[in-house]
Amino acid sequence: MGRIITYPEAIKEAIAQEMARDSSVFVLGQGVDDPKRILGTTKGLLEKFGGNRVFDTPLSEDGMTGVAIGAALGGLRPIHTHIRMDFMLLAMNQIINMAAKMRYMSGGKLFVPLVIRSMIGKSWGQGPQHSQSIYPLFMNIPGLKIFAPSTPYDAKGCLVSAIRDNNPVIFIEHRLLYYQKGHVPRESYTIPFGKARILTQGKDITLIGVSQMAVECLRARHYLQEAGIDAEVIDPVCLSPLDMETIISSVLKTKKLVVIDNAWMKCGLGAEIAACLMEKGLSGDVSVHRMGFEFVPCPTTPALEEYFYPNAKKIAFQAYQMMGREKEHWAPKKNLEIEEVEFKGPF
Amino acid sequence: MKRQNIELVKVLYKSMYRIRRIEEEIIRIYPTDKIKSPVHLSIGQEAISVGICEALNLNDVVFGSYRGHALYLAKGGNPRKMISELYGKASGCAKGKAGSMHLLDVDKGVMGTSAIVGTTIPVSVGYAYSLKYKKSDSVVVSFFGDGAVDEGGFHESLNFAALKGLPVLFICENNLYAIHSHHIKRHHSDNIFERAKTYGMPAERIEDGDIFKIYETAVKCLKKIREGEGPVFLECFTCRWKEHVGPGDDFHLGYRDREEVLLWKERDQLKKLKSALGPVVSHEIESVIEEEIKKAFEFAEVSSFPSREEIYTDVFKD
C-alpha cells in the first residue's frame, strides 16, 4: 500500500512477476518486443527473459492462437496479446472451436492454460474496426473465462489469476483505462474469478459498468451527488463466470439498476443481468435500464462518436430519471473536475 | 517390391489389418444405430498413418482430423476406448463427449483430432514450440487432408514452423477430394508439396501409396527433424474408398469414377503386406487382432452410458 502506479504498469508488473516465478509462462503477439512494447505493458520483458519467452508473431491471428493453444497443451502458459480486440475476430475458430472445447472434447484429459490479452479502443478516431468490444460473444461460450478489470489493482491481480488458471482466459483492457492510477501492492496477489467489486457503496440506485464504463459510473455518481442521489457503483470485474450474488444483493437494497455495457447492448451484460433478475422473480420489485453503444458501427468522427458511447452525464441523467424526479428538469452540467475522477483505491 | 525386414512387415501388417477390420466392423454395426456418432472412415488411407506412426517413438505426438480412426489406432490408441467412444459410452476415450471426430489417447501421444478442417495444424505447431522450448527430443506429426490446404491456418502454420525451426512433420493426406470437391477445382496447380517448400522447408511427394516408401521417408524425415533441422513436409496421395461420411459407397453421386477407386484397390497395401508374409504368418496375426476387435466391441456393448452429472464435468480444470 502507499504506492500508486498506472494500469499498464500494473499489467507489466503482473506479467514480469509471473514470468520470473514460472518458467513456463511466455508472451507472444504482434509488437510485444517492438519499440513501443504494447504501450509499455511488455517493457523490459525481452531483455529479462529472452526471445524464446517474448516474441513478435507474424500477422496470423488464427494460426498464432492455435500455436498458443498447442504450446499450452505442451505444458506452457502462453500470454497471447492483441493490441485491439477487433483482431480477435480473426482468431475465433481457434478460441471457440479449440481452446474453449479441448478439455470437454478430451473428457478431461487435456487442459489449455492460455491468456488472451486484448485492448478495446476508443476515441481519437478509432472508428468501426478499432473500437469493438466483443465480450458478449465470448460470454455466450462455455469453456472461456473473461476478466475486464477497471482498476490498476484489479488489473494486476486478475492477470496473475488468469496466468495461473488452467483454462483459457480472455483478459480485456480498455485503452482509456491506461490513464487510471491506483494503489497496487508490489508483491504478487490474485483476484478470484466470478467476484464483482463494489467500487462505492450507495443506497439509492445501483450502477454496473463494464471495464471503462465503471469509471464513467464513478463520474456519474459524482454528478448524482449534486442532485442528492447516492449511487452504488459495481465493477463486475469478471464477466464469465458472473457474480450475480453481489449484483442481486445490491439491487435488493436499491431497487433500481442501470447496467452500462461497454459494448452493444443486445445479448450483452445488461441483457444477461435483467434476464437473471426476472428468473429470480425480482422483476416486479426492481426497475432496470440498459445502456451501451448505439446499435450502429462506431463512427470515426468525434462529432458523431460523442453520441455513440454512454458517458457519465448520460448515465447520471438516466439514473436521475429512474429516481422519479424527471419533473424537476435536472441535468448534469459538464464538470471537468468530475470528468477527471479516478478511483485510486486502496481496497 | 524389394525384400523387406520381415519384422517390419509383420508390424505394418498388424497395424494395418487392425484398422481395416475395425473399420469393416463399424460398417457392419452401423445400421444398428449403436454407434452414436458420424463416422469418416479411413479405409483405403490406412497406409499413411501406419507407415508414419511405425517410424515414431512413444513420446512423439500426433494431431489429426475427423478422419482419424487410422491415425488413432496406428499410434497405439486403445481400440476398446475408441469403440466405446463411438458408442457414446462412459468408457470411451473422452467419456462419450467427443465421438469419432475427436479421438485421443494422451498416453500414446494421440493428442487430438478436430472436426474443423485444418484446425489442428497450428495447434501441432504450438505443441512443437513447447517441445523446442523444453529442449525435448520428441517430434510432432501433424496429419491433415488436401482440404486443409485451402485454410489460412495451414499457411500461417507452415510459415511459423519454418520461421522458428520447429520439430514438426507435416503430413498431407491428399485423397483428392474435400467432401466431393476435387483438389484441382480448388487449387490452381497440383503442387501442394511445392508450395510447402516456398515457406522454407524440405518437401516431398509420394504418389503411389507404397507403405514401405512412406515408412522409409518418415524415418529419413524424422531423423532430420530430430537433428534440429526444422520442419519437413510430406504429401501422400491416397484414396478414400468409402463415402465422405458414413459407411457406404458413393459412386451413385457421380463426382468420381469407380475406376479411380479401383486403381487404388488394386494397389491395396494390406494385400501386398499379406502376400509378403504368406498365409501362415498373416493368419496368426489376424487371429490375434480378430480376438482384440471382438473384445473391443463387446466391451463397448456392455459399458454404461455416462451418468447425467457428467454433462457438467470437464468444462474447466481446477
How would you describe this protein?
The complex is a heterodimer of chains A (347) and B (318). In chain A, 35% of the residues lie in helices and 19% in strands. Chain A contains 13 helices and 14 strands. In chain A, the strands form 3 sheets. In chain A, strands 3-2-4-5-7-6-12 form a 7-stranded mixed sheet, sandwiched between helices. A 5-stranded mixed sheet of chain A has the order 9-11-10-13-14, sandwiched between helices. In chain A, helix 2 (45-49) links the parallel strand 2 (25-29) and strand 3 (54-55). The longest helix of chain A has 15 residues, at 7-21. The termini of chain A are close together. Chain B is of the alpha/beta class. Chain B has one domain: Thiamin diphosphate (ThDP)-binding fold, Pyr/PP domains (Rossmann fold), CATH 3.40.50. Helix content of chain B is 45%, strand content 12%. Chain B contains 11 helices and 8 strands. Chain B has helices at 6-29, 46-53, 69-74, 79-87, 120-133, 152-164, 183-186, 192-198, 211-226, 258-266, 269-302, and strands at 61-65, 110-114, 140-145, 168-174, 177-178, 181-182, 203-206, 232-237. A 6-stranded parallel sheet of chain B has the order 2-1-3-4-8-7, with helices on both faces. A two-stranded antiparallel ribbon of chain B has the order 5-6. Chain B starts with 5 loop residues before the first helix and ends in a 16-residue tail after the last helix. The model of chain B has no long low-confidence stretch (mean pLDDT 96). The interface between A and B is large, with 40 and 44 residues.
